[in-house]
Write a structure and sequence with these properties.
7 helices, globular, alpha/beta, Rossmann fold, six-stranded parallel β-sheet, about 280 residues, about 25% helix
Length: about 280
């Protein structure tokens, strides 16, 4: 995990509990910040510190980090880069900020990258127990997990997949569009399609793999047509979206709507919204 970091930045993590490290913000010539246990702090050579003592990654270190995360082949991940991220070998998703280059009216690449948002995947077995108990204990149904970014949706989906596989033996198709959802134990009956847009993954997966359940992350408005076709075919869909309220889900295709509480306690259901709708 995080073995793509330059030695100076990796060394700064030696006094950080990596089990609680959720995110790193690596910005050229700006203080290095990390999210540990749900709270952002600055990181220096000896661990957590005040802003004035924080390491400031150089432009060269930003470039080195990106190249190493790509296996030193930007060409091999050019489709990911066009979408604004790359995924490292252990499932770390690295968001990119820089200069977007267009060609023929479409994004061609991102160059002169100045900022990296490194999101570290975590496996927390049992974190989805409350959701499973409330929504899935009587059998698989379509369910969507809602919260703003960074509040544990992917971790929840990973554990829901594991629990379903362990307790029902249903055939589960995991559509892992960004290569981070499958970074952990999904159970023995899960099949994974990586780095495919949901439209293609759903269509090809339904035809080829005959799933009982499809699990996928971060639905966008364009993805709901694929979800609708799956649910109309009798396949349960378990997904997530960057939304706070069930009322904001564009299409009411789900049997259960779950909002996370946003207090850093992964798996805790919000009392601000109904569990099921």
């Amino acid at each position: 995990m995080l073995d793509f970091l330059p030695a100076r930045l990796y060394g700064a993590l030696r006094n950080v509990n990596l089990n609680l490290l959720y995110e790193m913000r690596i910005r050229a010539d700006k203080p290095l910040s990390v999210n540990v246990g749900g709270k952002f702090s600055f990181l220096g050579e000896r661990g957590m510190c005040e802003k004035a003592a924080a390491l400031c990654p150089t432009s060269a270190e930003v470039e080195q980090t990106l190249l190493a995360a790509c296996g030193f082949s930007l060409y091999s991940v050019e489709n990911q880069i066009r979408q604004g991220f790359v995924t490292a070998s252990s499932g770390e998703r690295i968001g990119l900020a820089g200069t977007v280059v267009y060609e023929g009216g479409a994004v061609h690449t991102i160059r002169d990258v100045t900022s990296l948002c490194v999101r570290i995947p975590h496996e927390i077995k049992g974190c989805a127990e409350e959701i499973y108990r409330n929504c899935l204990a009587d059998g698989a149904c379509s369910l969507i997990v809602l919260s703003p970014p960074g509040e544990g949706k992917t971790t929840i989906l990973r554990d829901l997949c594991r629990l379903l596989s362990l307790r029902t033996n249903l055939n589960i198709l995991v559509c892992d569009e960004r290569g981070e959802l499958a970074a952990g134990d999904l159970g023995g009956t899960a099949d994974v399609i990586r780095f495919s847009e949901k439209e293609n993954a759903f269509t090809a997966g339904i035809r080829a793999m005959r799933p009982d359940v499809i699990v996928t992350d971060e639905l966008l408005p364009k993805d709901y047509a694929a979800v609708r076709r799956a649910t109309e075919s009798g396949i349960a869909v378990i997904a997530s979206a960057h939304l706070k309220r069930s009322e904001d889900v564009p299409e009411k295709l789900f049997d259960c709507y779950v909002s996370l509480d946003g207090l850093g306690r992964i798996g805790t259901i919000s009392r601000r919204a109904p569990i099921c709708g």
